[in-house]
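Quick one:
INPUT:
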């Protein structure tokens, strides 16, 4: 965005055109949509309002704010981090570099959890979200299944701070709590009589794949939330071995998996004594992303 010729000005429309081209050249996620979201943030307006402002010239201060956002995006800083928010399951969540950015495929995990809770309307179900991160899974389940109480656990204090903000944002502090814990190693007072449902979107990217990820993921999102080690299956082994101690009678486990991990994860759980109950995915996703298990 160098200085414009005398006869031209940096209108909203021209800024969007230039930035869309710049993002395309840099391989920035989001393209035109990212440009619109960042410009709306710099202008302090809603994205839809840009369409009535195409011939408007932003102030020098607004252009400078936008220029900085575009510079960071050009370095592959995720757009969600620049905005400080991401929509998930029709709810808005605060996100920071301390947490994984919510993905659409994870909505299949949430939907199945909600369905299981709603299938028992006469009971209050206890749900555990292992590796809660931003709290998006825990909050969405509690928001749409009124008969559940949710515990979100995470090993990262920084992530839990973000989760607590999101819990407060959605007025769910009375039904969703957080606890710092490594996987299934919960304090006894949190375990209580066990959980009716355990859900988890654990880290599952193998070490060899990590280096091949897009830079906006590899260089900016927390590796702890994405890659557990060499295989990518390490957390599933831990969950399969340790989760039974946390389950109430008749309880179930839902885990999100990588697109090519169906057979491996199913074998890990069934070899550990679990019963495979089925798989789930979003309608637009070609892969089964969620596996469901129970214990005899």
């Amino acid at each position: 965005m160098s200085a414009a010729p005398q006869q031209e000005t940096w209108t909203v429309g021209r800024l969007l055109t230039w930035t869309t081209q710049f993002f395309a050249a840099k391989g920035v996620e989001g393209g035109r949509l990212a440009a619109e979201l960042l410009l709306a943030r710099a202008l302090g307006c809603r994205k839809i309002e840009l369409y009535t402002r195409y011939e408007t010239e932003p102030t020098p201060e607004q252009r400078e704010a936008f220029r900085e956002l575009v510079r960071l995006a050009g370095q592959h800083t995720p757009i969600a981090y620049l905005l400080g928010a991401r929509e998930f399951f029709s709810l808005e969540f605060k996100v920071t570099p301390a947490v994984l950015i919510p993905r659409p495929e994870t909505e299949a995990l949430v939907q199945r959890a909600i369905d299981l809770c709603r299938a028992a309307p006469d009971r209050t179900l206890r749900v555990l979200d292992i590796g809660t991160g931003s709290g998006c899974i825990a909050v969405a389940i509690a928001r749409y299944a009124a008969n559940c109480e949710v515990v979100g656990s995470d090993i990262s204090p920084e992530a839990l701070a973000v989760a607590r903000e999101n819990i407060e944002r959605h007025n769910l502090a009375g039904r969703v709590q957080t606890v710092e814990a490594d996987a299934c190693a919960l304090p006894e007072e949190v375990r209580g009589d066990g959980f009716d449902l355990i859900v988890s979107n654990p880290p599952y990217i193998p070490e060899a794949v990590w280096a091949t990820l897009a830079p906006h993921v590899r260089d900016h999102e927390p590796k702890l939330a994405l890659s557990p080690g060499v295989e990518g299956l390490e957390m599933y082994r831990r969950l399969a071995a340790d989760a039974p101690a946390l389950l109430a009678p008749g309880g179930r486990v839902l885990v999100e998996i990588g697109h090519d991990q169906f057979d491996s994860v199913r074998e890990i759980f069934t070899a550990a004594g679990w019963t495979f109950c089925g798989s789930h995915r979003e309608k637009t996703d070609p892969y089964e992303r969620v596996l469901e298990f129970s214990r005899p």
